[in-house]
Amino acid sequence: MLKRFLKNAPLFSRLTDEERQVIAAHMHLQRFHQGDILFEQGAPATAMYVVRSGLLRLINVEDGRIIANLGPANLAGETDMILGLPYEVRGEAATDLDVWVLSRNDWLDIIEMHPLIAIKVGSFLGQPIGDTKTYLTTLLQQSSLFEDVPVHVLEALAEQMQLETKQHGELVFQANAPARYAYTIGEGRVALVSINPNDTDPFRYAAQGDWIGVEAVLRGGTYGAVARADGDVQLWKIEREALLDLVERYPLLRDIFRRQQPEAETIDRIAARDALQQTNLFADLPLDVLDDVIRSLIVEHVEPNEVLASPQEPLNALCILHRGRLQVIEDGKVLAEYEEGSTFGENILLTGRPLTQTIRAVEASTLWCLPKETFERLMARHNELGSRVSFLLRSLLSEEQAASPEQQSFLRMFPLFFALDDEALAAIEATLRREVYPAGTLIYHQGEWPEAFYLVYEGEVRVTNSRGKVTIVRPGGFLGETALLTGSEHAETAQTITDVIVYAMPRPDFEAMLERHPHIALSLSRTLSARLQRLQKNETAPLLQDSERASPGARAANALVFDRESAGLSTHLWDQAIEWFAYLSTGAKIRLVIVALLFFWLVGVVAPWLVVQRLEGESLNMRETPAVVFVETII
């Protein structure tokens, strides 16, 4: 009976049966006699009541007026109790009365254990209850879609999201309607019917964790499908203006949202692969690399006469024109036109120089674009891309140097230095010494202390670690950074496969470079992280054994680690370590920070991931329950 009463109560109408059962389990039955006072006007609201039998009279004490006589299934004091307010009226038993009682303390226990109940009730009352932001941030963190997104970005996203519930068959959004909201599905599923005539399978479902309507919101157009609730559905929505502001502040979100393309675009993916294979940059690459590139493409829509790029807002991406027609304009003259299937912006990815000409749409056009920042992340994952870039840059730079030998530095062929200007490149070049190694020569051996950072200009080098894992470093790549960053001995052996030309940067100059250009340190850290992932996340450099030969950063790392691990050491030694850290050079501090970040990444991410993978593997052998994947879908 109580569960039925709660289900019919508007306050709890948005809860699931399981959530209402949680509330019912915390309520107890209490009897009052006629004339008994259940609660007094102005007193703290310590409980809410659900009438089982009899009548509960609500009285305004100030004028003696009877506000209402509540019979079975009615609630009293619920709003005051939930919001922590004083009772607005007196509650008195008009007859002998049986009520179910939920105390405020029990309510607080409920919403602590089940924060979604507080969020749903709060959405009905129009006032926030509980910590919605924390709940949503945690929910977003559980999605593989946002696994690399910083917490503060997810918190900013969570702050803008609002709860909305739909009953079976209720419309979420209509096709061709202005895209005002993007949605992610918290519970239930939504049926979608696309109006795109090119969709081979226009009907599909979006389930828990999927995003819908995002692509339409980002391009500022209309929804491309009809979306209806398939059963009761809980949605989290974000307004278009709020989402656009977020992707402007955090471009990573735009990249994440737009790379999640509907599965119905299979034919478009094939067309994208064909177009990419026509370029020098992506021709003849392995299919798995190309597929990763295609998954990273984002969709851009431009209306007739809309400007895609200009000298004030240059293009910083490679683009494939899927539909429509574009013009390239300079000084008011049309220099070229792009038709469907055209690809442009390849040199942007190669050289890092944005396209400053004006590109304007002649007609409504759709493009698939690969931003420069996304391409750099792809290079960190795929050696083949880095090698291809270096090869093409060498050819391009050779041509430019032949025409103007004083203007180009050979360092332009190294993606690591893309962001540096000519003056900075010249300063770095002055620290390098050219070294030539015949095929089969050791550059350094495992266990040796690092003396330099090596840039591979020509040839190939085999890097082998203690477990026999092999990495091939080609022109445009680099060697020896791991030992320099960690202040340890080389954890691998580097031997030339062919005749090799490298440029060596001595250790002091390497540290000075990191101090002057911190973004290079971050890039090296990201590359090192990618290498660790490729080595199955189980390769780490050996710990320092000789503190006399270690760099200051490494000695500081050892001091901090052993001070934390040894329970018997005094606080005085810990204070000494902190004081010593303060006297380190900036370069040493940068190395120490990178080492610490990598250590915590390995311990806090990799180890739990391996445990979870093992447990999931054992679980799948015992039962055939499909895993729920938190995947975003865009309409």
Q: What fraction strand? A: 15-25%
Name the CATH class of the largest domain. Mainly Beta
Basic shape = elongated
Q: Which whole number gives the mean pLDDT?
A: 77
Largest sheet: 4 strands, antiparallel
Radius of gyration: 32 Å
The total number of structural domains is: 5
- First CA to last CA: what distance? 43 Å
Considering DSSP H and I runs of 4 or more, what fraction of the residues is helical? 25-40%
Strand order of the largest sheet: 1-8-3-6
Number of helices: 22
Q: Kindly identify the CATH topology of the largest domain.
A: Jelly Rolls
Supply the CATH architecture of the largest domain: Sandwich
- Low-pLDDT sequence parts: 261-267, 402-406, 536-576, 620-635
How many β-strand stretches? 32
CATH superfamily of the largest domain: Jelly Rolls
Helix- and strand-based class?
A: alpha+beta
InterPro entries: cNMP-bd_dom, cNMP-bd_dom_sf, Env_Response_Regulators, RmlC-like_jellyroll
Transmembrane segments: 592-612
Organism: Ardenticatena maritima
Keywords: Membrane, Transmembrane, Transmembrane helix
